[in-house]
Structures are given as structure tokens and as C-alpha cells.
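User: Quick sanity check before I run a bigger batch. Here is a single chain. Can you write out its predicted 3D structure?
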Amino acid sequence: MNFRSPLSLFSDDLAIDLGTANTLVYAKGKGIVVNEPSIVAINKATGEVEAVGKQAKDMLGRAPGNIVVIRPMRDGVIADFKVTEYLLNYFILKAHSRKMMVHPRIVIGVPSEITQVEKRAVIDSAFRAHASEVYLVEQAMMAANGADMPVNEPSGNMVVDIGGGTTEIAVISLSGMVYACSLRMAGNQMDEAIMQHLKNEYNFLIGERTAEAIKIEIGSACPLDKPLTMKVKGRSSIDGVPKTQIFDDSEIRKALSGCVDTILKAIRTALEYTPPELSADIVDRGIVLTGGGSLLNNLDRRIREETGVPVSIAEDPLASVVLGTGKMLTDFRLVRRVAIE
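Assistant: Done. Predicted structure follows.
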């Protein structure tokens, strides 16, 4: 889907991975120029924006009552139009060193199962943030492109991109999607699962940032070679008193089991629906994991054990989507061909 404007003649092209957890911006000729949390802090009394990105994330769970910290993206799509518009505008200006008169052509990666209403929301927000042309491309295809998979060849390539709000699973051949699935189960849902598990089992309350830290440090998809423990600070839900408790990796694995099982089931379904000829290619080449969620300890091993297919993690999994989208900036004829209508 795209729109053009005479202003595109004077544009500095950008590729954007507008993620639920983080937004990455790639500038043509410069590489990744922005990599910050998709978070905005707003003063409820004045309506003014207090902070964006890293500064806003530092306020999560610590802001006074008059400041609300918002994640405008939910499950990979826009949940708050006005705040997303501000977020995009802020990052576009940052990418162009605060130059106000820049009107870039923008290519944005979005989930494969995005609705028409959600597409329109992304496009409108980009235009209000001073884009001259907007193109939407599928995140899974861009992740495969960014992971240097041979997507142009007549062979099967399977990518699993586990982001903050969605997991994108795709089988690609000849630059086309043979199979695509967008699963609203990813990193943020894992954090929520940890918070709920500790609350239900131990009456122990923690915030989003602490849950994410636990996931990164001792979270895993199957038993670790060397058990891990972590000292966690939180609050008792019974008496409200702050407390510190030690948890081990097996407890957090139990909390994450439902999330991991959902992703595994979707991967098995994708393999079942893949044409036999392409399945043979996937068995040879393996599944490539991208996105921050792919870094969950032993997730690659768990997928390998349950599917019997080789599994590898992309060289730069956190940036695969934006790197793949950034590659497209050199050929807008190709962008127009693969853009979502």
C-alpha cells in the first residue's frame, strides 16, 4: 500500500520497524540511526509529552501519579493513534538530526495479518509525521531479508520472528510468502506470564521491567546445562510490604511454558502446511529465528528437539526486520512490488 507526493523529490528515505517493544529506524546510507523503546510518557494534567523512548522506559513503574507511561503499540499494531503519531514524528526528526523540513519516503514493517483498519492507522500516522510516501511491507519477509536468507531463490526458507507483541512465522520462496502466520504471542506476553505466575504462586508482585529482566537472565524454554537463580525485589500482595525473593530457572520456565508451547504449536502447523518440495528445503536449511524473543535461553534447542529440523538464530536478531527493510531502500521499484496492497 503506498501513496506519493511531490515532496518525495526532496526526501531522505527511512525504513522503520515500528515494534510493540522497540522502534528501530534505518536511514539510507547511514544504517540504524534510532533504536529505542516504543514508549511515551505524558503529563495528564497538561497533556504534554514528558519523555519518549529510553527516557520514558526509565519511568515505567516509577512515575508520579500525574504522569502516565504509554505503549502506543499493542500486538504489533497501533493502539493509541495520537501517541503513535508523536512517537513516529519524534523518531523521524531524530533520524534526520532534528531537521524540520525533511519529508522522507518511509517503508514500515508490519505484521502479516494486519487488518485494513490497522494498515490505515499506520499510514495516517506516518503521513501526519511528515512522510511524503508510505509503503507497508510484511515483517517476516523483511526479517528473512535482514537475516541474509536466500529469499529470491526458488527454494523454501522458514523464518520465525519473535518480537515484543507478535510472532511472525513465514515460509518464503521466490520473494513470495508461501505460508504466513501472525501470532499475538511474543515477548510482552512472556513478561506478563512471569508477573502472573509469581503473583498467583507466591503472592509476589513485580513490574514489567523486573519481569523482562527475569526473562532475560534466567528464562528458558527447556532445562539449562547449569541451573540459574536470581534475587528479585518486589512486594507482597498480602501485606503490601517490599520483599526480596530468590527464584530459579525451573520456576520461570514453568511460568513461560504456556507461551513457548503456543509458539511451538504454530511452528508445527506451519511445517504441516508447507508444500513437500519446500519442506525438503527447510529440512536441509533449517529454521531461522529472529527478534528479541529468539534470545530466550534454549528456545532454539527446544524447537529443534520438537520438530527435528535444524534451527539457527540470525546474526543480529533484534535488528533483522529493520535491516531487511533498509535493504529495500535502494530499489523502490521492488518496494512497490512487494508492498502490502
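The two ends are 4 Å apart (CA to CA).

User: Great, the batch can go ahead then.
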